[in-house]
Amino acid sequence: MEQKGVKDGTPVGRRVVLGMLGFGVAGVAVGATLQKGFNRALAPVNQIGEVLPGAADGFRYYSVVGSVRPRPPARHKVTVGGLVRREQAFSMADLAALPQTRLTRDFQCVTGWRVPEVMWAGVALPDLLDAVGVSPRARAVRFTSFDGVYTESLTLDQARRRDVLVATQMLGAPVTHDHGGPVRLFVAPMYGYKSLKWLGGIELTDKVISGYWERRGYDVDAWVGRSNGRDDAPT
Ligand SMILES: Nc1nc2c(c(=O)[nH]1)N[C@H]1C(S)=C(S)[C@@H](COP(=O)(O)O)O[C@H]1N2
Ligand SMILES: [Mo]
């Protein structure tokens, strides 16, 4: 999907332009303020979400690539490397052997849909980071998906929150393939795009490397309920 970044940090693609035509705006020569309003109003069309047949869980299916080849849990490993003391590849059994954390939180996509009180379980990211030992030079964490395209990032302070999970369970069952299993990220305090699906790699870095949507204009700090997550974000 082609996306072009515009002024106010919200990506606008072809569909948005088509949407603007629908609003009776030619899509050209829109003033900065108007443009901002439109970007907000039209945000939902930037991500194409499908309600999967038979899925009554309230989520929409998002993937920036056409189809993702399923990973059998028995063969899947999440590698943790970069600025760490000991690189390690965690199998599902390795993850299960670490302390487990459960959370029930709303899931909020930046485009407006929300699923209330979703049950999540897995390894709190700080516990996984402790297991490998973070180098004093690390400042951020980069996440990669085995879809081969999607990436995300957190500052190290954000990554040390106990409500950030390397999730192996969602909605009371193992994370399904469509929802990004066997392992996905769940960043409870932030918009859904931070919750990377099909987690394959975690890399400690010396600075934040913008993720997929962030390179297309979304805020790197994606706190839910803050118009601007840059100033007083909690750590
Ligand atoms: N790999 C990958 N992870 C992703 C996305 C994606 O397209 N690819 N979309 C993000 C967005 S915008 C949202 S809202 C949630 C949607 O999760 P779901 O598909 O399980 O509903 O996944 C996030 N993680
Ligand atoms: Mo989203």
UniProtKB/TrEMBL annotation:
<keyword id="KW-0472">Membrane</keyword>
<dbReference type="InterPro" id="IPR036374">
    <property type="entry name" value="OxRdtase_Mopterin-bd_sf"/>
</dbReference>
<keyword id="KW-1133">Transmembrane helix</keyword>
<keyword id="KW-0812">Transmembrane</keyword>
<feature type="domain" description="Oxidoreductase molybdopterin-binding">
    <location>
        <begin position="72"/>
        <end position="213"/>
    </location>
</feature>
<protein>
    <recommendedName>
        <fullName>Oxidoreductase molybdopterin-binding domain-containing protein</fullName>
    </recommendedName>
</protein>
<dbReference type="InterPro" id="IPR006311">
    <property type="entry name" value="TAT_signal"/>
</dbReference>
<dbReference type="InterPro" id="IPR000572">
    <property type="entry name" value="OxRdtase_Mopterin-bd_dom"/>
</dbReference>
<feature type="transmembrane region" description="Helical">
    <location>
        <begin position="12"/>
        <end position="34"/>
    </location>
</feature>
<dbReference type="Pfam" id="PF00174">
    <property type="entry name" value="Oxidored_molyb"/>
</dbReference>
